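User: Modeling request: complex.
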Amino acid sequence: MANHAMSLSNRKKEILRTVVELYVKAAEPVGSKAVAEALGSGISSATIRSDMAELESLGLLEQPHTSAGRIPSSNGYRLYVNDLMQNQNISNDDAEMINSTLDGHAIEQVRLLDEVGRLTSRLTTYPAYAMASATGIVCIARFDLIYVDCSTFIIVALLSNDTVKNKLVHLTTNIEPPMLTKLSAVLNASFTGIAEERITPALITSTERAVGDSSGIVAVVAGFTIELLVEAKTIGTRVSGAINLLNHPEFRDVDKAQRIIRYLSDEKELARLPSPESAGEIKITIGPENLADELRDSSVMAIKYDAGSDIQGLIGVVGPTRMDYSKVAAHLSYMAQGLSLLLGGIGSDSLQLNAANIINKTGDDNIGEN
Amino acid sequence: MANHAMSLSNRKKEILRTVVELYVKAAEPVGSKAVAEALGSGISSATIRSDMAELESLGLLEQPHTSAGRIPSSNGYRLYVNDLMQNQNISNDDAEMINSTLDGHAIEQVRLLDEVGRLTSRLTTYPAYAMASATGIVCIARFDLIYVDCSTFIIVALLSNDTVKNKLVHLTTNIEPPMLTKLSAVLNASFTGIAEERITPALITSTERAVGDSSGIVAVVAGFTIELLVEAKTIGTRVSGAINLLNHPEFRDVDKAQRIIRYLSDEKELARLPSPESAGEIKITIGPENLADELRDSSVMAIKYDAGSDIQGLIGVVGPTRMDYSKVAAHLSYMAQGLSLLLGGIGSDSLQLNAANIINKTGDDNIGEN
DNA sequence: AATTAGCACTCTCGACCATCGAGTGCTAAT
DNA sequence: ATTAGCACTCGATGGTCGAGAGTGCTAATT
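Assistant: Request completed. Predicted assembly structure:
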């Protein structure tokens, strides 16, 4: 298939490109006359007609019915994306919006992710998803137990990826500060620096014995630890702007739209979406190239970015195969570049910070029980 | 209008009720014959016809066109909801699902909210929104500063509503444990127990002087404090299952559906949606009763629940005026009751807990900067 | 006075059909 | 190799028609 590009005359390539671009714009089959006009280069529609017939027999174009124009096949799109698509810059307005979103509330990671997804969706007019996850193994770097009152304490855990988690614990048994101190020491000895799967029941019982705990506090801390380590690997996934699908004529069929939106709202499925190999690279899967049945006549574009120590982020967009690949690519690149810069992928260690200008990522909460 | 109910014969009430119920079920105008059959009480369709004509002239029913059946007007729905609707119990299956959601991962408040919204939407088949917010004034109950290394520490703040927030702070200046201890004491003296608006620049400078801080650490803590107090008032708002709208024939018009979904995805607007006076009560606004233009031909049902000390939650549902008010009411009640119980509104203090069965609400995270 | 059977009338909806036009493939001429 | 010309195909558009559902009214019944 890849050698199609080689064997195609330049004119045929131009025709294919034109068909794709016109079809992307108008969502209607493109006729030979329209191509001739768009091309402008004095070639008659009859010539184009025969070229288009050939492109069709190569499987790059399709005809919805005999007397209609042509639309690109998924192979056609693929060839377009690989060889024909021209790089595009995003508009100043769009760049401005992205910049201000990134500058603006670069606050909490989860929220930023949210904003990014929302903006991407809005700019591209397709549903977008954004997620971030740890690349390496996450473990607890240290524990602190804060005594609140005789039946209450707070667990604070600093993770290896600079994330802090906490939990407010209420007991019916009493607990005193010395006990907490002891507990804290033992926990730091036993549960830090190890991956989640190494926190076994055996480890828990031996720790309980070491600290002389019969009330199950150690078990609670262990449960909390496992829970947060699992959670820490994925910072979040969010789909934004799913309704945008409805703007595109291929999803005028409500059922079709619903099927995809439902699919997208399943986080598990989302995690299985195609993902680029490395940061900055854009991965495009077109129509039947998608493994998921639900996406068989849609396309997915995704880009990766570095989000600091051991964290990688992903922004993706889902749309009809008649997607504006070039525009979306431009948006995704710009976005990913901005994010890498902001979250300091590679160059981050050299950033100068001072207390007055402390980076403001953080904050989370916890509700205790009575 | 309220006296309609009084002046209506029982038969007319029954007819109205039947029309509403049949219409809710089938989404098609209801004819006199269908009512006669549903009613079953040997009354002829002709009689019903004249009654329906009267109900129409009272503004309780409407006729899409001359030769069609009747549909309830918004006044008709209102009367139905106020006087005619019969309490309904939710199915065992549904109860089971709600229970397991509440039991299951009653973990983090935000996540629970999410789950609840999602489930509500699924069970009712309408988009749902869930939010929770502090009713009283929130303030910091205590601070703890945890020393990590010479340029890093963690702020842990316990809020008056049993929420714990944290932030990882990196400095370029050095800091030593004794300084942190001192800082901690001063912070606990100055910033605890007061509302967000009382943390003024003046207070900050005076605190800085007291602790001998020139590097701006106090300012950072103050900023963090303000930020989290503001945030603490609203735990979150989330709309789930917006696509469900598309299932209902009144939203087959894609534009109409989009308008509402767009409206619902604006958090600010959401906060302005009608809300019941007190916990357990269901507030229903029908069609034009809604202030927002976008909801003029939709209905909203919402219920409040107690979520523990000073926190109230809200679950709501948005749908066409042809909503299954009775079914939704049943679901909302059950849900709210479950939540009140779980999050321990009133009776919570008397709940028995032991360490082995610690309530599992919590956990949050924070990303530091390099 | 209320109820009801009967009937004429209204209006929507789907089926059927003719027309229109965009676009094609082919052929013959350049 | 390109192109003008032409016959042909097929969806889209719009109009007509009949069926069916439902109404309102009238006259008869209780």
